[in-house]
Design goal:
It contains twelve helices and twelve strands. The protein is of the alpha+beta class. The strands form three sheets. It has a five-stranded antiparallel β-sheet, sandwiched between helices. Strands 7-9-10-12-11 form a five-stranded mixed β-sheet. Strands 6-8 form a two-stranded antiparallel ribbon.
Length: 409
């Protein structure tokens, strides 16, 4: 074997061994350990030029071409790179990729074997990644790729066997998105809890100081209870949403009649209907659905609470179910201000309440629709904001129950 290729093999083998040893660590740590081992191996290996034999002098004819060298490097070190978690490119002094592992092909969205022989800029299709490879500063950098992805990249100089740079890449997009979601959650929770906590504290301090008027004291006690109840409701909904997101709550599906769901939901929500509001149920010929009855009633209750909150005096909230293609579409329609087109894609996000300035008294915590979205998804349905000439219409589907009874309808 050519000493240069032997040097590459030892270099990459050291990285592979280090990567295996670092499997117990998080991926970024494992990558750092692996590539540091590569650099260490490169430093320990002899860098002297191999002696040539008088009987076989080195001539232009015996020096492999760039294409041949690329194929040789990939063939020699490719199997060793395959087992590494992170995306790795071996680049020569002309900024041409000489070897790449499958992780790099997946990360860059390229077909197998298409990276070798390409320039770094063509292989990565991103000038930021190319700049990291050119600088080869040996420091981890987060790079914005295509304006929508985040990668942690590190590049080292090795200068051995025709390889000038080792470029390691790791996808961080989902991790950063999760971190932003966590930060948003903390900020939103703090915002939602601040109001009831402040109100309850003020009421408690007032009562502690003493309120001579008995009627006023009773009113303060009632308001304090309401604020504490509101606080407990927010916390309970947060815990409920967290369990749904983690699939920690079990579902028990059964065959349920849509008419039973509509009537039961209307009965349960009746105490919340204002004296100047009207709740109308349209019972259609919809086939039975396969669903968790109590979870579906929870979805309907959340949609109805939302509709009643925004329904104006004298307004009607309509609850209905219609047969579809292999599914039943449930709908809740109100006559309120409606939902802006820009808000339709986000109303099912937790804590998202749209434009609070439109109706400050009607704004809730923004958890009910998020809970509804997760329940419907677990039941195999869809949920969305439908078109409506007046007010808002929220819809969700559930699959039709299999069986002769469902099929005959």
């Amino acid at each position: 074997m050519n000493p240069g290729w032997r040097r590459v093999l030892v270099l990459v083998a050291a990285g592979a061994a280090a990567g295996v040893g670092a499997l117990v660590a998080p991926p970024p740590v494992a990558a750092a350990v692996a590539v540091l081992a590569v650099v260490a191996a490169a430093l320990l290996l002899p860098r002297g030029r191999p002696a040539t034999s008088a009987a076989a002098p080195v001539t232009a004819a015996t020096v492999p071409s760039a294409d041949t060298a690329s194929v040789d490097v990939q063939a020699s070190v490719g199997p060793l790179l395959e087992g590494l978690y992170d995306a790795i490119l071996l680049v020569d002094g002309d900024e041409v990729v000489r070897a790449a592992n499958p992780a790099a092909e997946r990360l860059l969205g390229r077909p197998a074997g298409s990276l070798v022989g390409q320039s770094v800029i063509r292989a990565t299709r991103d000038h930021n990644l190319t700049q990291v490879a050119r600088e080869a500063a040996g420091e981890a950098r987060e790079v914005d790729v295509e304006g929508r992805r985040v990668m942690r990249t590190t590049a080292w100089r090795v200068q051995t066997a025709g390889i000038a740079t080792v470029l390691v890449m790791e996808e961080l997009t989902e991790l950063r998105r999760a971190q932003r979601a966590r930060s948003d959650l903390v900020a939103n929770v703090s915002h939602e809890l601040r109001t009831p906590i402040a109100a309850a504290l003020a009421l408690a301090e007032t009562l502690e100081e003493g309120v001579p008027d008995e009627a006023q004291r009773a009113r303060f006690h009632r308001q304090l209870t309401e604020e504490v109840t509101r606080l407990g409701r927010i916390v309970e909904r947060l815990l409920h949403l967290s369990r749904l997101e983690q699939a920690a709550e079990g579902f028990e599906t059964e065959v349920v009649e849509p008419s039973d769901l509509l009537e039961t939901a209307a009965t349960r929500i009746a105490p919340l209907v204002g004296t100047d509001q009207r709740l109308h149920v349209e019972l259609g010929a919809a086939p039975p659905v396969l669903a968790d009855r109590e979870r579906t009633l929870e979805v309907l209750a959340n949609l109805l609470e939302n509709a009643l909150r925004f329904s104006p005096p004298g307004g009607t909230v309509t609850l209905l179910a219609e047969a579809g293609d292999g599914e039943v579409c449930f709908g809740v329609r109100d006559e309120g201000p409606g939902i802006l087109p820009s808000d339709r894609a986000r109303v099912f996000e937790r804590f998202y309440t749209g434009d609070r300035s439109r109706d400050r008294e009607a704004v809730g915590t923004g958890l009910g629709l998020a809970i509804a979205r997760h329940i419907v998804a677990r039941l195999g349905g869809r949920i969305w904001v439908g078109d409506s000439e007046r007010g808002a219409r929220l819809c969700f589907t559930l699959p039709v129950a299999p069986g002769p009874d469902a099929a005959s309808r």
